[in-house]
Amino acid sequence: MSIFLILLSLAIWGVIHSILASHFAKDxxxxxxxxxxxxxxxxxxxxxxxxxxYLAATLPDAPVYRVPAPWSFVMMGIQLLSALLxxxxxxxxxxxxxxxLRQLFEEEKPERLITRGLYKLIxxxxxxxxxxxVWFTPTMSRNSLTLYVGVTLYLFVGAYxxxxxxxxxYGEDYAEYxxxxxxxxxxxxxxxxx
Length: 194
Fold this sequence. Notes:
Radius of gyration: 18 Å
Largest sheet: 2 strands, antiparallel
Strand order of the largest sheet: 1-2
Helix content: 55-70%
Oligomer: single chain
Distance between the termini: 35 Å
Structural class: mainly alpha
């Protein structure tokens, strides 16, 4: 039952999150919320994800594995590196706009295609390093495994739709970037031609 409830809550969250990220919803809600839309969207995404974490932490659970030392320290080191690379990737975007704070003080500018830094190496560093962080957890329970599988599926589906959106927005510039740059870390995803 725990697995079902966690996956159901993730599915509901994913559908709502995806709808709110669509151009249709964004245009409609920006008319109502104005410059607060992006910040509100991010706050809502985080707050609405909290019940899923609560379910994973409180529903009946069972251990799946526990990696012994020294390998658990290696895995925690990879998690630390992943968190650092995630932060670097975030800072390589216009972080204030990404979060929604810049829009409070300035008119929103058209987003630009980021192809430098970590984005020069992989197309989705935020997704990649988030996934590396969760999958290198040295202790895994049934609930956390369920949560990680669900989030991983959501990120891969989200990356597919995000890439379609980016192709519409940036056209040949994005198509060329996509041809040159792997989707995620080579080996994590099989092909450079995703």
